Amino acid sequence: MRIAESIRNTKETQIKLKINLDGEGKSSIQTPAFFLNHMLTLFSRHSLFDLDIEAKGDVEVDFHHITEDIGIVLGETFAKALGKKEGIGRYGSFYVPMDEALAFCAVDISGRPFLFFNADFSKDKVGDFDVELVEEFFRAFASSACITLHLDAIRGQNTHHIIEALFKAFGRALKDAVRVDPREKGVPSTKGVL
């Protein structure tokens, strides 16, 4: 089983996270950012990663620090759980329709951190969550996991639907990228390393 856990304590946030890449999509997400909890629960369900997160932080300021730091810790723990990356599919991509919204995600577990993010939101907030933090979360994840991540909100009008489609596509694409193929010998790269 590819399981890892991490703890990150700073003056701004305290985060404890555990991930199982070979799980069933079960999650326990406990943060004060309720919209983010919803998105991470969706991510867990669609990736089939078991995910436990306990996070606290200076949310009286806003949700920026806790959102970014969860992205950092989730990325680091994901990379730790992958281990040597032997036998994985490496690439994954997925389209997700969510009513009028359509999102696409492509991922390469490349060892090279990069984020392409394209989304236009008609609102600045969903509930009390600043939607600009969606990009910050994905940037933090891509950087700390050392993956190439492309997220594209192709269309949509309802901000909640657009963000939900992005998180679901992200989960589905990662599920494919980490899938182990018994025919794959070593890491899936002609360089011999990822």
Sequence-ordered SSE layout with sheet pairings:
Elements: E1 3-9, E2 13-20, E3 27-30, H1 34-47, E4 50-57, H2 64-82, E5 91-98, E6 101-108, E7 114-118, E8 125-126, E9 129-130, H3 132-145, E10 148-155, H4 159-178
Helix pairs in contact: 1-4, 2-3
Pathway: Amino-acid biosynthesis; L-histidine biosynthesis; L-histidine from 5-phospho-alpha-D-ribose 1-diphosphate: step 6/9
Main location: cytoplasm
Protein name: Imidazoleglycerol-phosphate dehydratase
What does this structure look like?
This is Imidazoleglycerol-phosphate dehydratase. InterPro entries: IGPD_sf, ImidazoleglycerolP_deHydtase, ImidazoleglycerP_deHydtase_CS, Ribosomal_Su5_D2-typ_SF. It is found in: Cytoplasm. One of its GO terms (biological process) is L-histidine biosynthetic process. Its EC number is 4.2.1.19. The chain has a single domain, classed as Imidazole glycerol phosphate dehydratase, domain 1 (Ribosomal Protein S5, domain 2, 2-Layer Sandwich), CATH 3.30.230.40. The model has no long low-confidence stretch (mean pLDDT 95). Helix 1 links the parallel strand 3 and strand 4. It is built from 4 helices and 10 strands. A 4-stranded mixed β-sheet has the order 1-2-4-3, covered by helices on one side. Helix 1 (34-47) runs parallel beside helix 4 and helix 2 packs parallel to helix 3 (132-145). It has helices spanning 34-47, 64-82, 132-145, 159-178, and strands spanning 3-9, 13-20, 27-30, 50-57, 91-98, 101-108, 114-118, 125-126, 129-130, 148-155. The chain has 194 residues and is α+β, with helices and mostly antiparallel strands. The longest helix has 20 residues, at 159-178.
